[in-house]
Amino acid sequence: MLLTKKQLNTILGNLRISIPAELQEELLERYGNVAVTEDGRAIEYTEQDICEQLRKIVRPYENTNKEVKDFKLT
Questions:
Q1: Mean pLDDT of 26-48
Q2: Would the N or C end of the chain have less CB density within 10 A of its end CB?
């Protein structure tokens, strides 16, 4: 499965989380394209994989009353 902008917005809406546009673009770049390993194998993410990773990444944005540090994908 490849993540689309519409799917990302649906997931964020269901989680009731708003994230910066830069992070949205990073997530779409990472999960919206086919990932290829060094030996040429394509990595295919499942919907569950994507949702779980997004949940972990956007966790700092769950409470907008807290100060949020810059979060970068590694």
A1: 90
A2: C
